Amino acid sequence: VKKVSPETNNKSTNLLAILPFKMNNPVDSSIMHDFLMQDLSKYTLSGLNILPSILTNNCKDYSDIVTLLDKTKPDYYLAGMMVTHGDKPFLRH
């Protein structure tokens, strides 16, 4: 048996907005944001699309975030903050 019809791509795609993590040092926040963007972009072929950092890296407060989410309608978003317990920093999402 030979298949003559073209294969359809039924792979679902999801849009992810990676928001800058709230951290004590803005440089650390930028580095974390860039790292997450680069690391998660490897899943593009699996159907994960990531909003460009030019759209997300300036989301500093609640109104910026709500505006971005309303306009871009991502399926998911990732946000977090640095919390210090004693002298050890932790990331919470």
TrEMBL record:
It comes from the Bacteria. This is Uncharacterized protein. It comes from Candidatus Regiella insecticola 5.15. The lineage of its organism: Bacteria, Pseudomonadati, Pseudomonadota, Gammaproteobacteria, Enterobacterales.
